[in-house]
Structures
1.
Amino acid sequence: MLRIVLGIVLIAHGIGHSMGPIGAFKVATTNPGWNGDSWILTGVAGATAAQAVGLVLWAVALVGFVALGFVAFGWLPEAWWAPLGIVASIASLAGLVLFPMAFPTFSSLAAAVVDLVVLASILWFHWSPAELAA
């Protein structure tokens, strides 16, 4: 049961990263106070480059966390847990740092908590979903 809950949380977290490109490319408004810019990248590299970096970061986080949920369900190899979790979490955190206004505040805080919990579970506790009962 816990593996199912973990998988659902990770997949939902991954899908939540779609709000970044949706807001950056003005498909919909994810945070009315955000115009698609990065506080640091836009001034240095321009809006197009900043949006491209954001798109890559959010795509990596989206695919990574959905795949991580599949690992939790047992649909993908357990060996993928650590590399996927580390890469997806770092991409997500980088997106949050570079584009802090991309998401509503609560969403950003919740995303950061999930990212940090995943990183801590892998790097400090060396935990994997295999330790949960199926």
2.
Amino acid sequence: MAVDFAASAACAHARSARQETRTAVRQAAAGWRERRKNDLRQMGLVIPLSDWLGHSNGPEMIESQLFRRWHWRQMRDAAFAPPDPETGARWARKAEKLGLTCAEYRLELLERGRHPTEEDALRIRAARPR
């Protein structure tokens, strides 16, 4: 099997050229930052000690909102997950007896921490959109 040294040399050259490009970009960026700092100093502006000064290193605002929305959905799905069959049937019978939907019954149970009474059912039915 013949080894193509020209192809290997070309690959090595391309790799070094990419590294040289990265180095050149880094150096150019460092030079640009230094010129910007000098320009700001000449204008009399205060230069912060660090680029990270005042940054909490926390997630970005949009990522944080997306996470809260996702977490809220997960918790809501967990709260309204179907109970075991016996409990579900018992709650359905109680909800039907009170004239509530299963979702209304479950929501009242989660909000108040107790099973709805007839007075609660009247309040819930009165609050329904027409």
3.
Amino acid sequence: MTYKIRFVLLMFFAVIFVVATPLVVLNARGYQFNFEEKKLINTGGIFLRSTPKKASIYLNNKPIKVQTPAIINGLIPGEYLVNIELSDFHSWRKQLEIESGMVIKQDNVLLLPKKPKITLISELPEIIIEKKENKLKYNDHEIWLESESENESNLITRYGEKIKQAFLHKDQEHVIFLVGNQVKFVEIDGTNTVDFIKADKILYQDSKLYILQKQNWFLTEFD
């Protein structure tokens, strides 16, 4: 190999190094080239954690290779439809806004079984009612959650049928309530309402949901 060829090769690889290195660094810092807008943009991400775990993830109805819990980086800012699915469980669905340089957290995704397992109990344990102020408020047709930072309440959901009972889930992100004879779950932002099971009355304590059906008490532990 002549000196001239070696010099040309050396310069070729030097140019590649000079061009590629900044791109690699920018990509590592979350930047990508947007071919539609023809410019570099700072991407964002989503952190997803579900109970149960190992659920499938879909972004804009397209499957993602990873399962929950997972962090998905390199997303161009904008709205994304996120679905989390697991066999024999109700799916979770939410529209999320991805922002530049930010990771959106959805770390309390609760997947509820389509056919809950219940156990008949001989007697109902003594339910301890905490004396501290409860942030959850409800009347016959509405459920609210008191805001911690402001002196106001945020509406969670509204029903024409009477709301008989309502409990705040231990994760502080879900509400369990009884409408008619239907036990429902809803997130505190009013999304992902799930019809869980039929009951005449419910009690919730220490992650245990007690349901009354035809004068018999049953226990279901769902998370």
